[in-house]
Amino acid sequence: MRETDTALIVIDVQNDFCPGGALAVAGGDEIVPGINALMAEFSCIVLTQDWHPADHSSFADNHPGAAPFSVTEMPYGAQVLWPRHCVIGSAGAAFHPGLNTDPAQLILRKGFRPGIDSYSAFFENDRETATGLEAWLHARGITTLVIVGLATDYCVAYSALDAVRLGFRVELREHLSRAIDLDGSLEEAMAQMEDAGVVMVNMP
């Protein structure tokens, strides 16, 4: 078992982000067995879950004439318009059926406010509205986070960068994450995480 000051954060391993899903990440299902095995090393495990209402402002089809993966301006800044995904209560929003959810102490749902997207496990995309995860981890004496999941260049990266900014030591398991890689987004996200001091671990 790992030290009690370390938590495993599993980001958005949901059906819509896996092959066959509405916003599939290539190889998204390949990481599930490795994540399940890794859970045995942790006494504190958090799963995050994208959880959008049908009228969510990040859905391209809620913007007449807008193409999926185009970018629009929201009051909080630039926002990619995504294909409809992870709608509350849908099969696509459910965790991948192979993911072991039993060890989780917390399931954190994010992106449920219609007017704002939420990539990070810590803040919505305005970078100010907190999810409550920081306080939950501090209450348990957690100082180090190991992050895995989907997608490396969006929700994983945003979570890792926010965690560093909040004072946590952060380790990304690259081999247990997969990326969308939209117009070079993976390279940019990896550079930002490395510059911020995220520890990169990549095992065969």
Could you provide a short overview of the structure?
This protein has four helices and eight strands.
Q: How much strand? A: 15-25%
Question: How big is the Rg?
Answer: 16 Å
The helix-strand sequence is EHEEEEHEHEHE
Strand arrangement in the largest pleated sheet: 5-2-1-6-7-8
Q: Give the rounded overall mean pLDDT.
A: 96
Strand element count: 8
Structural class: alpha/beta
Q: Give the CA-CA distance, first to last residue.
A: 22 Å
Form type: globular
Biggest sheet statistics: 6 strands, parallel
Proportion of helical residues: 10-25%
Walkthrough of the structure:
This protein has a six-stranded parallel beta sheet with strand order 5-2-1-6-7-8. A two-stranded antiparallel sheet has the order 3-4. The longest helix has 14 residues, at 152-165. It contains four helices and eight strands; from the N terminus they run E-H-E-E-E-E-H-E-H-E-H-E. Helices cover 20% and strands 22% of the residues. The two termini are 22 Å apart. By secondary structure, it is an alpha/beta fold. It has helices at 32-38, 133-139, 152-165, 185-196; strands at 6-11, 45-50, 71-74, 77-80, 106-110, 144-150, 169-178, 199-201. Helix 3 (152-165) packs parallel to helix 4 (185-196). Strand 1 (6-11), helix 1 (32-38) and strand 2 form a beta-alpha-beta unit.
